[in-house]
Fold:
Amino acid sequence: MALSCQSPTKTETARSVPTSTENTEARADTIPTLTSLLRPGESLSLDEVYTDTVQFVGVNDDGDYFLFNVRKAQDTVWLLYGGAYDFVRGDRLAIQWKIDSIRPAGDPAFLDYTEALVSAVLVEPMTLQDRSTRFLWREKRFLEEYGATVSTIVLDTAYAGTLTDPEKAALGYVATFIGNECAWDGKATPTRSNLKCRILTALNLGYQCSGTHLGFLRHWFRGDSTALKKLENCPTIPDGATAQEMFDHIDVTVAGNEIIVAYAVTGINTQRGKRWTWHAKDYFSFHDNRLQLVKTEKSEPVVADIEISGD
Structure:
């Protein structure tokens, strides 16, 4: 889970770093050679505190222990940590850490050794880079499964791999409410929890309206009550529904701490024989390690009649 750190409860903090209280000297003859990707090639000492500069990647608080993920050079390392940090993926940190002993949950007889975070201080915050990119567009392509040439969505997946979390949150928020070739992953579940959408998949946000999807957005928009309220009505509309709206294109512009997502939409209602188009720009502000939807500019829809031919 690649989110900014969230503070755990006091109870969770108490259990998050399950280090052993055994005397170090008593264990000296059984301690293996201690190494870490944070200090490649070095032989490390148990409980000695080391200082390194790293890049913050994320946290995982869903398991038995809280884990803090950092990158140094080409390596990523998970450290046990006690919570209460608020960093953004890409922040440059100075960390103090040590090798500590741990008895894993479920196997208390086994003594292991792992990295544990002592402290972390922000050295240089992640900053957005000015750029403008067309993220989504449509092309006519021949699809063998349909035996026909159809208009299909194309995504700039290379660009998706370079997104910062604020850009990812802005795109994920916009994509939540407009169709982007969403289809059930297998048979639809009774709770409609397995709708797979092209954009969320490219952003690694899981199924539409899933805990991964909404949890990420709620974290980033945690100070925006309007955005949070809208997320309460997360739609699960598959491609091919009687009434739906679909993206024609999406452009993303970053300027300073502002992210602008401009998009064009086509809607269709086959039951009523109507088709419509509209376009919009959503303006997001990145500040205090969170995102806010500042304003939306939306055109009036242009509606036309369509003929629906029967089989």
Observations:
- The chain has seven helices and 14 strands.
- Residues 131-305 form one domain.
- Confidence is low (pLDDT under 50) at residues 1-22, 24-29.
- The first strand starts at residue 50 and ends at 60.
